[in-house]
Amino acid sequence: MRAQENDKFSSGRAGGLSLMILVVCAIVRAQDPTSQPVLIDASDKSAITSAIGSDVVIQGVVSSAAWSRTGAVMNIEFTGTDRSGLLAVVFQRNRPAFDEAFVGDAAKTITGAKVRIKGRLEEYSGPLESLKGHPQMILTRPDQITVMNPTSQPAE
Question: Is 33 left (phi over 0), alpha (psi -120 to 50) or beta?
Answer without folding.
Answer: alpha
